[in-house]
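Sample intake — DUF4158 domain-containing protein
Collected from: Ochrobactrum soli
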Amino acid sequence: MTRRTLLSETWWQQATTIPDDDREIAKHYTLERSDLDLIMRQNKASNRLGLACVLATLRYPGRPLAEGEVLPPGVLRFLARQINVDHREIDHYFERPQTRREHLALLFDRMQIRPFAPSDIRVLTGWLTPAAQTLRQADKLADMVVEELRRRRILLPTRPALEAIIHVAIRRGIRIAHRALANGLSDDQRLELDKLLESREGTNLSVLAWARTPALAPAAANLDKIAERIRFLRSLNLPMTLMERIPAKVFDEFAAEGMRMSAQHLRDLSPERRHAVLAATALHLSRHLTDCAIDMFKKIMGVLARRADNRAAARVTRSVREVQKPLKDVSKVCHAIIEAKEKSEDISKAIERAIQWPAFTVSVAAVDR
């Protein structure tokens, strides 16, 4: 089966194409004094320009100049100006194919560079594996490999070879993390984790599926069910120190796998990977459900507090309504007294005209309450 392409076409084109931007041309193809000394030893103008072109492509992007390959006009003119030759001299350079090969051999020796070898795949895979444990983006990993190749003075490999390095490094990084997590488990813990994939008694759900699908609506009954799941997960006695055995990002990836995969798919995994994924999932669920329980408790308390506030507000409203009429009665009597006093009338008669005495005493008692 053909392995899918890892590197984007955009990345590969950028990594292998000769730049045509003036700034990039100046950055990569400005010849040093030692370069000029070597180039100017060539007798023919065409050979001087050809050697400059071979040197340029070896330096960037890091590959030999192909037979008959003419560099973009901007690069060719830039190199030609530096060595004072006509850029059209390149037409004569390829008349003798042996010259290009001789120049390659000369520059390999002078620049201490060499072509990529099959043995480099193994070496660079080992070098890349630590980074591939946490970084899974092929283009970014490829950038790291290319930079390391230039540091080691090795030319760019073919695309399949570069993708093989990245592919193996990622797989190896994942396996190392699986092993690191699984090796932190006892035999009993592995057995208990495997039981997560069994059906829960009286249901068609696996224990894991039950644990990862609690009802989250804020209700006391649901809070009890979450607490039941937390107690069960903690009964597995998985040490929290397991999380320290691998990078946090990788741990989260394993937990996400366990939250997503069915029990059947998890059963089909290799034991080492299965136990690593289940351990990460159980620890993640324990923390996640604890957070859910706290959030739910806060919501329930909020509901209860709002209900209590509403009841208190209702009582205040009722109390205000109940005291409004007695207050009006007392106010009416007060106005009657004031009016009688101003007119020098009998106050008791004024009160009796305003309100019946028994009703007045009832209103005063209501206000006093």
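Post-analysis note: Residues 9-111 form one domain.
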